[in-house]
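# step 3/5: fold
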Amino acid sequence: MTYIENIFLCMVSPLLVAALCMGRRQLRFFVFCLAGMGVCLLSAYINTFFAAVYQADALAATAEIAPVVEEIMKLLPLAFYLLVFEPESEKIKPAAVTVALAFATFENVCYLIQNGADRFSFIFFRGFGTGAMHVLCGIIVGAGLAYSWQRTWLKIAGTCGLLGAAITLHAIYNLLIAYGGAAQYIAYALPVLLVTVGKLSAIRISRKK
């Protein structure tokens, strides 16, 4: 087993114990955490496979392959949840955000193990930026699915459109990261600002109501 599987086991083990101890009311949260980390692990294998098949360089793998693979993989647990359990619309967005958050957490931990954690400022910005980017994609997909899956005629087209939007945002983020320099820090700051603005706007709207 390589190091990434060892990390996965170390992170999943306490979640499984907690899921058993917390009872059925919290089970959904832990299941989607496990799903997010699981699809992150699978995404690493699939990204490597396609990069080898197409002989992609680092830029192509980062900006072209990874966004497509990762966003599709994050969508799969949600699609299974929607098709099998047919949840109420208000449960879809939290599920999408939880999958995205767990995905980002596992990805950040693997990055730290692989590249070290000696540069605090860089790790700080990358941790918040990558987490916010994945969460923002989760919010877009989750909120959109909650709307589109209540309308039969919009399910397929809406899901494809939301997936395309998440892939585009993810690709822009990765492209700016790969470019380096000031663009890299702009990429880290942009999703954090978008999530913050969205949250403040939601609070203002709720107060008006």
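# step 4/5: annotate
The radius of gyration is 17 Å.
# step 5/5: archive (pending)
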